[in-house]
Every structure is written in structure tokens, then in C-alpha cells.
Amino acid sequence: MRQGDLRAAPGVAFFRLWRNLVDSLHKPRNILKSNSYIYFEFQSTFKMSEERYLEDLKDIKDIMNRSSRFVSLSGLSGVFAGLFALGGAYAAYKIVYTDQNYLAYRVASITAESKIALLAIASVTLILAIGTGIFLTTREAKKKNQHLLDHNAKRLLINLAIPLATGGVLCLLLLSKGLIGLIAPLTLIFYGLGLVNASKYTLGEVRSLGLIQVLLGLLATYYIGYGLLFWSIGFGLLHIVYGIVMHIRYKS
Question: For the purposes of burial, counting CB atoms within 10 Å of the CB of 157, is it exposed (0-12), middle (13-18) or buried (19 or more)?
């Protein structure tokens, strides 16, 4: 070996040693970068899978609700029902408390003619509320591709009709006996019981509305002289508030 090669050998060896040292220092960083990239890809994939999983659960929940509950109730029908009830309450007030001094103590006077007028007002109010409700609910059912009188709707109507029919017959019997003070409280109570009974087959908010109606009916029974006022709150204002909330929440 020549003398120049011997002198160059230590320098070459030192360079190789230095290069190996530098490579060994950079290698963990490369591994760390690779691991970070893999972790990021895993997190992104997991997040996308989780979002897709939640969407699938939501779709399954909607399908189950449609198959077990009638979800096509229209919020606007509640608003119109409340407006009709307020109009009917005002007309009944004018008949019951007609020709009286508003500065003195008022006495409810019910004659045979006023009974017929009250029944007519109640019938017109009920027909308008039911007719509007059927029209708006039919339109909402078409939007959601749901039959208006499917199995769930029939169960809802049956469970609602039983307390309503019982309360209606009882109120007619009380009206025939002249016990008009209990009519407004009992209509609230039986209507609330009907809503609670039917809430198993429709939206959960119906149950809350029914419980409030029952509470108002019990208060009206205690404050027996303010039955028409509680009736206006229950069938009028509560229906309007309920309808607005349902319309905003479910876009119905």
C-alpha cells in the first residue's frame, strides 16, 4: 500500500463513522414522523367510521319510530286548534255572562236557550279544530310518505277516543243536571288523560301536554268559578304554544 493511501485511510474511516452516527440520529425522527402519519390516518379513518356509525344509528331510530309511532302530527294544527278554542271561549263567555254589570259580582246564568247555544259553540269549535287537524296532518303525512290511517294512527285514535268519549258523556250528564261548574274542569282532565294514553303511539311531547292539561283541570276544580279561564288557557294558549314548539322542532 502506498504511503498516501495509509494517510487517507484514517480520514475515510472517520468520515464513515461520522456518517453512520448522523444517520442513526436521524433515523428515530423518521420513524417518529412515520408513526405520527400512521396515527393521524388511523384517527381520521376512525372518526369517519364513527360519524358514519352515528348516522346509521339515527336512520335506524327514525325507521323504528315510524314503524312504532305516528310521527306525522302537524304543529300548525295545534296553533289553529288553540285559536278556535279561544274564539269559542269568548263566545261562551258572552252567552254565560250576558247583560250583567261588569263592576258588580257576576253570576253565570244558564237557560235552556243558552245550553243549546253553548253546545252549538262547542260543536263548531270541535269541528273546525278536527277538520283543520286532519287537513294539515294529511299534508304532513304525505311529506313523510306515511299513511294517514296506518296501524299506529288507528291505535293512537282508539287510545285517545276512550277517555274523550267517557268525559264527553259525563259532561253531557252534568249539563243536563245543571252542574255547569264541573264541565270545564272535567273536559280538561279527560282530554289530558286521553293525550297521556295516546302518547305511547306518537311524539313524546304529547304526554307532557296531557299532564299539564290534567293539572289545569284539577286547579279549575278547586277554583270552580274560573273554569272558563282555565279552559281558555288549556285548550287555547297551551295548544298555540305546543303547536309553535312542534313546528319549530320538527318543521311540521
Answer: middle
- The answer on pLDDT for 39 being more than 90 is no
Q: What is the mean pLDDT of residues 101-110?
A: 56
**Amino acid identity of 148?**
L
Say how far apart CA 116 and CA 92 lie, in whole Å.
11
CA distance 174 to 40: 74
**Structural domain boundaries in the chain:** 1-63, 77-250
Q: What is the mean pLDDT of the chain?
A: 76
Sequence length of the chain is 252
Sole residue written with cell 309553535: 244
Amino acid 239: pLDDT: 92
The conformation of residue 91, written as its DSSP 8-state character, comes to H
- Residue type, position 90, single letter: Y
Q: Pick from 71, 81, 70: which is nearest to 154 by CA?
A: 70
Confidence band of 1 (pLDDT split at 50, 70, 90):
very low
* Contact present, 59 and 142 (Cβ < 8 Å): no
By percentage, how much of the chain surpasses pLDDT 90? Answer: 25
Its pTM stands at 0.67
How far is Cα 27 from Cα 30, in angstroms, rounded to an integer? 5
Measure CA 143 to chain center. 18
- Burial code of 169-201, b = ≥16 C-beta within 10 A, e = fewer? eebeeebeeeebebbbbbbbbbbbbbbbbbbeb
